[in-house]
Specification:
By secondary structure, this protein is an alpha/beta fold. The chain contains 16 helices and twelve strands. Bound molecules: nicotinamide-adenine-dinucleotide, 6-O-phosphono-alpha-D-glucopyranose and manganese (II) ion. The site of manganese (II) ion has 5 residues, from loops.
Length: 445
């Protein structure tokens, strides 16, 4: 039986991840066939760089797909089945501010964690809501699969502002960690692993991992993680593409694991459990945003320009990684009713029994044409419960601050982050953040 062809719009067409997703879509024409592929962005010049290369790739490898690149919302969002979103409101230049301002005050400066993540959340909310509204206006039956960060705060905002919209917020970090775990255990790939996991986005723990035959993988894994974190035993066995800063994060998982050796942690927990280590190892003048601008952004755009200039992509270095694989697999599960098990960010609603039902949690879900059905992870221990409740409250306060334009609530949110030592430091960071976010945030009262 032939599969019904899909129409997809990638929102944030100018993202450094777009070309990778296009490669993955093209490689998956047998499993997820396309009739149309559109790009949408609010920065035409930036999107054009990626679009000119992707036009060549599509023409060369899958000419049956109609390709459109546009900055017109109506053209972009009309007649689509899926919106794959990954926008960065304020761009990498504002990410740099999110990272450097907290560091200046001796606090973790991170894209999605702590005050930097909250500042980014205040920028992202209106951008993502605008995309949801375009989708509902022009293609009310479509699904939006959203990577735009900070996914936890964006998810809470969509729950509050558009509770009935067909948006699924997602993260590729658990998949990336499971890829490393598969390598560590010598499994073919991460799809061999069946997991139980609970938490928030960038804030969760695995309680179980088995292979598809049901064999427990945890004892061997725990032994490895205790020594090496999620890094390989010898440096040569780590992926060639692994950057030093990410390798450090994978290694640091060893110390995060030590705090609760019953579970396996998400790597992002290092920012909450070892903020002192993170700050003392950061360079306040050159943060991850600088690394990304100097490497991924530069390299992806240079390759896109090369492909566009030569009008061929036969030898292109653009690759589809796990990031692209996960979003395309999710779209496939929704379109073709595969009932696959995937970690998604959804309303708790009982999935974690002893925390707020309205929290947006990250748990395994069964995905099919009916949408997603979260699996119940049961009651969680006090350590994780305490951490999660503090973090959920901080994330909820950011969204309340946005909705009420409340300085007080945003100050409370910053103060409540486990990365921030006091209300006075929170206030200093907040005041600096207000200054640089004038163009993006609502005015706070
Ligand atoms: P990027 O800056 O290279 O790309 C983002 C694109 O979004 C830009 O082309 C920009 O012009 C566009 N954009 C910004 N605001 C917009 C708006 N309001 N409407 C339409 N387009 C808009 O960023 P990147 O490094 O490629 O990352 C893209 C996003 O994906 C970020 O939010 C990043 O955090 C997120 N991300 C999330 C995950 C995850 O696990 N959830 C993984 C990887 C990346
Ligand atoms: C992981 C996380 C994303 C985050 C990204 C940052 O993939 O899941 O949420 O955006 O890392 O990566 P970068 O290379 O931009 O620092
Ligand atoms: Mn993520």
């Amino acid at each position: 039986m032939s599969l019904e062809k899909q129409s997809v719009v990638i929102a944030g067409g100018g993202s450094t991840y777009t070309a990778g997703i296009v490669m993955m879509l093209i490689e998956n024409q047998d499993k997820f066939p396309l009739r149309k592929l559109k790009f949408y962005d609010n920065d035409k010049a930036r999107q054009d760089i990626v679009a000119k290369a992707c036009e060549v790739i599509v023409k060369e490898r899958a000419p049956h797909i109609e390709f459109i690149s546009t900055v017109d919302p109506q053209e972009a969002f009309t007649d689509v089945d899926f919106v794959m979103a990954h926008i960065r409101v304020g761009g990498l230049k504002m990410r740099e501010k999110d990272e450097k301002i907290p560091l200046k005050h001796g606090v973790v400066g991170q894209e999605t964690c702590g005050p930097g993540g909250m500042a980014y959340g205040m920028r992202s909310i209106p951008g993502v809501i605008e995309l949801v509204d375009y989708m509902e206006k022009y293609s009310p039956n479509a699904w939006m699969l959203n990577y735009s960060n900070p996914a936890a705060i964006v998810a809470e905002a969509t729950r509050r502002l558009r509770p009935n919209s067909k948006i699924i917020n997602i993260c590729d970090m658990p998949v990336a960690i499971k890829k490393s775990i598969a390598d560590i255990l010598g499994l073919k790939d991460e799809k061999e692993i069946v997991d139980r996991y609970y938490g928030l986005n960038h804030f969760g723990w695995w309680t179980e991992m088995t292979d598809r035959q049901g064999n427990d993988l945890m004892p061997k894994l725990k032994k490895h993680i205790k020594k090496y974190g999620y890094a390989a035993e010898t440096a040569d066995d780590n992926p060639l593409s692994a950057e030093a800063s990410w390798m450090d994060t994978f290694q640091k998982a060893k110390d995060v694991f030590a705090v609760d050796p019953e579970t396996l942690p998400n790597t992002y927990l290092k920012y909450y459990l070892y903020p002192d280590y993170v700050v003392s190892h950061a360079n306040p003048d050159y943060t991850r945003a600088n690394e990304v601008m100097d490497n991924r952004e530069k390299n992806v755009f240079a390759e896109c320009e090369r492909v566009a200039n030569t009008q061929t992509a036969v030898d292109t270095s653009i690759e589809a990684g796990e990031h692209a694989e996960f979003i395309v697999q999710l779209a496939g599960a929704l379109a073709y009713n595969t009932y696959e098990r995937m970690l998604l960010i959804v309303r708790n609603n009982g999935a974690i029994a002893n925390i707020d039902q309205d929290a947006m949690v990250e748990v395994p879900c069964i995905v099919s044409k009916r949408g997603y059905e979260p699996l119940c992870m049961g009651t969680i221990p006090d350590f994780q419960k305490g951490m999660i409740e503090q973090q959920v409250s901080a994330e909820k306060l950011v969204v309340q601050a946005y909705l009420e334009q409340s300085y007080q609530k945003l100050w409370q949110a910053f103060t409540l982050s486990k990365t921030v030592p006091s209300a006075s430091v929170a206030k200093e960071i907040l005041d600096d953040m207000i200054e640089v976010n004038k163009e993006w945030w609502p005015e706070l009262n």
